[in-house]
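[agent] plan:
  1. take the single chain provided in the ticket
  2. run structure prediction with default settings
  3. attach structure tokens to the ticket
  4. add a short note for the reviewer (M.T.)
[agent] executing step 1
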Amino acid sequence: MNRMIFVNLPVTDLKASTEFYKSIGFKNNPQFTDDMGACMVWSEAINVMLLTHAKWRTFTNRPIPPATSSEVLLALSCESREAVDEMNKAASANGGTADINPVHDLGFMYNRNLADPDGHVWEAMWMNPVAIPSGN
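[agent] step 2 finished; step 3 output follows
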């Protein structure tokens, strides 16, 4: 079996969060989706589990951080600079917040940060490995 990652996120509105993640390029896996959670697929190895607060509490008693905090920044690779811009635009149009941090453009790498409706932070990024300056 290939190694995979399942990022689990607590969400306040499962339907809205599912639609948000679809809008930025994730696909829903109905096999692992019900009224308490939704499995959103980025790639064969990367999945995001959107969990209602009630479901989240079955995994941990630790408090759910407020939407204004940042517990982690997760980066998603995109196929082009334009795809990074499109993801940010889709986030903003579907309940998220675009450009929560300054845009970074290093020529060989370009990224923009966004937040989902619950404040979880994502970085849409594109990189051209052959253009990385030597010494990096």
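[agent] step 4 note for reviewer: The chain has two domains: 1-60, 73-136.
[agent] ticket updated
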